[in-house]
From TrEMBL, chains A, B:
SUPFAM superfamilies named in the record: Thermophilic metalloprotease-like (SSF144052)
Keyword Hydrolase: yes
A Gene Ontology molecular function term of the record: aminopeptidase activity
Annotated keywords: Aminopeptidase, Hydrolase, Metal-binding, Metalloprotease, Protease
Organism: Salinigranum rubrum
Recorded superkingdom: Archaea
GO biological process, one term: proteolysis
Protease keyword on record: yes
Signal peptide (from-to): none
PANTHER family, per database record: AMINOPEPTIDASE, BLL6088 PROTEIN
Cofactor(s) for this UniProt protein: Mg(2+); Co(2+); Zn(2+)
Family per similarity comment: Belongs to the peptidase M29 family.
Protein name listed in UniProt: Aminopeptidase
Amino acid sequence: MDERIRDHARTLVDWSARVERGDDVVVSVGEDAHDLAVAVCAELGERGASVVTTYASEELDRAYLRAHDGDFDASDAELALYERADVVLRLGGPRNTTAMADVSGDSQAAYARANQAAREARLDTRWVSTVHPTRALAQQAGMAFDEYRDFVYGAVLRDWESLAAEMAQLKELLDAGSEVRLVTERDAHPDTDLTMAVEGRVAVNSAASVAYDSHNLPSGEVFTAPFATEGEVFFDVPMTLQGRRVRNVWLSFESGEVVDFSAETNEDVLADVLDTDAGAKRLGELGVGMNRGIDRFTDNVLFDEKMGDTVHLALGRAYRSNFRDGEEDEANDSAVHVDMITDVSERSRIEIDGDVIQRNGRFRWEPGFETA
Amino acid sequence: MDERIRDHARTLVDWSARVERGDDVVVSVGEDAHDLAVAVCAELGERGASVVTTYASEELDRAYLRAHDGDFDASDAELALYERADVVLRLGGPRNTTAMADVSGDSQAAYARANQAAREARLDTRWVSTVHPTRALAQQAGMAFDEYRDFVYGAVLRDWESLAAEMAQLKELLDAGSEVRLVTERDAHPDTDLTMAVEGRVAVNSAASVAYDSHNLPSGEVFTAPFATEGEVFFDVPMTLQGRRVRNVWLSFESGEVVDFSAETNEDVLADVLDTDAGAKRLGELGVGMNRGIDRFTDNVLFDEKMGDTVHLALGRAYRSNFRDGEEDEANDSAVHVDMITDVSERSRIEIDGDVIQRNGRFRWEPGFETA
């Protein structure tokens, strides 16, 4: 077995999920995630946790959903499983990332609604999602399989403790600050100059561990919930929305709301998103990607939004974790949460209350910041 | 998809498990049983059952057991899952039938003990076990993969309703009878002449359906719990005991107990079995294989013991289903249940209270019985 698979399993079980003796662990195994599951089971055995394994396959979901008349009953058995679990480890590993292409969105939504209680019970555990590199994911990323494996392990096998310490510095600045300004200059594209209020919000240090209220491995971002957004922003990293590639999105904000927009390809998809509801025109998230193990776009949001030297903004729903106790009602509400990413590695700066905290991809605590 | 996979799924869901709208179904997917699982999920969707899928892999079990210190905790989550389930469909499909070869029997037994409550909850559902043909199973059977698939579907895709009706005739004879006599003549091997009491016992018509208290697909046998066994019996179908092949077993009974024995290969394994406890020297089962879709030994007890024109006897534990209510305490008790199979297709007869009910593989209700 590739030693990196064992390292991945160890990182997941120890750093991310903090598994201890006696924990009741559900391991969800994706279609091609078997090898990672073997390594995870060895780690769980060593720690004296108990384990039950589920199988996650979009091909099975597709067959079930297409055959069903749409009047779904929840699975009480699944609900009971997650209600009793302490930890849920989801090992993604699709064989075909478009396996659900011919299942209607209505059917998927109705099924999700029917199973909401089980989903909430699962989110109430120390859950962590990760992926085992598969050929299907490599293909979606436009990469060779070996190349993609190197990419995934480069992103996952970080020194998380030291990255968490570094990210804590940004969280501290965001928590203490009132206003964030993002500035980028581009030649062939529009410039960005956007200000967002963050006063009173709580930034999350998303360090790929439940100990940091972070449930993805890899992670590596600090995010908060902005409001009162003003100005213009251009996103140069491509994205896939509703199964279609959208490129070079430009948004203009006034009083927190999108008042103008454009996209070079599939602009109508962007228009649809903005039309969803009132909250879809407002930002729900401002995130700063700080995982430099992720150095390229792979069309997988688990990785893309954590890319080092990027900033992402999400239209739509805000995370409750960015609000102080009792203030969760202030969170932007929407049926959507759409992340859009911009490169800040050059001709860019991030300011908090007028102080530059990152310039051309260098944070102010990093060597070379002054001359960046 | 091979149309036979759909037929297999339909037989499993309709005939075997009798799934109805609203049933809470757990589908246990073996390592290489994905394709059958897809077909089963389509059938479950069509019927409006709810579904949760688990993953069964001996490679995962091996990794877990070898890493664990042996002081196992039960999984409460797994227990809760089976307690709420109405139906459990186990789709076996190993990639390697010897995946557990280097896990100690002690460790496996301790783990099984820790999870006894979950196992009992599972056995308390309308559970059915079947297998999806895999290369590993073909290899164990000594067959080519395509050849093995033909074999499996020949065994599974029967006209179960008419086989159940035929088997009902044998059940009726066994239930009404007092003594069964089995006689076979062999040239190079010992002859068989064995009598067993069956008075007061209840034969099970094992027709691959929960409606018949039968939980294997394929099935196709009628079995009861004999006692007061007298005489000698020779088993010409090979068997695998404790991972070792045992051939040409001969047993001699007096007053229900084995008083002498031999085997041509690995006789010491047979001696070990007989030494387990007092019940291991007595018969727990007399079964008559009636599935003529199974026409050869494939080293898989799910198939072997249902082979048409065979009789099997098991040393050890009897099934409670062979006893009338309140008489279950009379069942032979033992830690083992070891099936041994003998060919009755030629120079053989089965008698009940002196009447020949099968001669040279022909039952008395079949054409050609008189001249067989």
